[in-house]
């Protein structure tokens, strides 16, 4: 059974991941729970981790994953509209089997077209190899059309997206503010970035402080899909 503060913190982390796809900072958690110091947050995080509600992702700052929710939260509607990126990470080989587990039954997996490595200067459609596919759990995708892309570069590492990862994209020409999308710039340059609309402009934000945000008039940017999942191969 969770304490009131553990319950509040778990709900806050869950909502932030659902809306933005990135864990809140310890300062943000402290302010949200109206605590005086971050040491209280460390104790709450440890308690949630020991009870199996969250886990810390190794070698990554601010990287938390919600493993399960109390029954009352599972019945409650999620915060926001679900269009942010809450990573569903599958770790293992591309055959769909997790380490130490049996492959999922055929009925629980589906094949998505695997496009090439997303890189500047190449439209998404030009990347497609009609002979390449990747198996993904059905639970990772919802309604609509999906495809997979290999990530090239480190511009989104602070969002937990690394070079060599395979990202699952829901094809769409719209996305909410803050969603991670595949954007086509000037009909020739494809990139995976977080989208922000600021006044009459569109900002494509990296998740790596060594890269700059790029700002364009809306007519120069076309959304080709939004990020819904990620597969990592070791």
What's this entry about, in short?
The chain is of the alpha+beta class and 234 residues long. Helix content is 20%, strand content 32%.
Number of helices: 5
Total strand count, please? 12
Q: Are there runs of 5+ residues with pLDDT below 50, and where?
A: 73-88, 90-107
Beta-strand content estimate: 25-35%
SSE pattern, N- to C-terminal: HHHEEHEEHEEEEEEEE
Coarse morphology: globular
- The value of Rg in angstroms is 19 Å
Question: What is the average per-residue confidence, as pLDDT, rounded to a whole number?
Answer: 77
Main beta sheet = 10 strands, mixed
- Which structural class is indicated by helix and strand composition? alpha+beta
How much helical structure, as a percent, in the residues?
10-25%
Structure description:
Residues 73-88 and 90-107 have low confidence and may be disordered. The longest helix is centred in the N-terminal third of the chain and has 17 residues, at 4-20. The strands form two sheets. Strands 3, 4, 5, 6, 7, 8, 9, 10, 11 and 12 form a ten-stranded mixed sheet that branches. This protein has a two-stranded antiparallel sheet with strand order 1-2. It is 20% helix and 32% strand. α1 packs across α3 and α2 crosses α3. The chain contains five helices and twelve strands. With 234 residues, the chain is α+β, with helices and mostly antiparallel strands.
């Amino acid at each position: 059974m969770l304490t009131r503060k553990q319950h509040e913190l778990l709900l806050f982390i869950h909502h932030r991941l659902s809306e933005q796809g990135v864990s809140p900072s310890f300062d943000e958690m402290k302010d949200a729970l109206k605590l005086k110091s971050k040491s209280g947050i460390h104790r709450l995080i440890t308690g949630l981790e020991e009870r199996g509600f969250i886990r810390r992702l190794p070698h990554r700052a601010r990287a938390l994953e919600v493993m399960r929710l109390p029954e009352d939260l599972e019945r409650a509607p999620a915060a926001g509209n679900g269009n942010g990126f809450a990573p569903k990470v599958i770790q293992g080989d591309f055959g769909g089997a997790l380490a130490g587990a049996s492959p999922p039954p055929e009925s629980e997996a589906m094949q998505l077209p695997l496009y090439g490595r997303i890189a500047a200067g190449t439209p998404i459609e030009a990347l497609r190899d009609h002979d390449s596919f990747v198996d993904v759990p059905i639970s990772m995708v919802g309604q609509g059309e999906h495809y997979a892309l290999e990530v090239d570069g480190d511009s989104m590492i602070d969002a937990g997206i690394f070079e060599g990862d395979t990202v699952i994209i829901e094809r769409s020409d719209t996305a909410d503010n803050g969603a991670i999308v595949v954007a086509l710039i000037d009909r020739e340059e494809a990139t995976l970035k977080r989208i922000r609309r600021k006044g009459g402009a569109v900002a494509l934000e990296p998740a790596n402080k060594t890269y700059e945000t790029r700002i364009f008039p809306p007519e120069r940017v076309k959304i080709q899909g939004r990020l819904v999942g990620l597969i990592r191969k070791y």
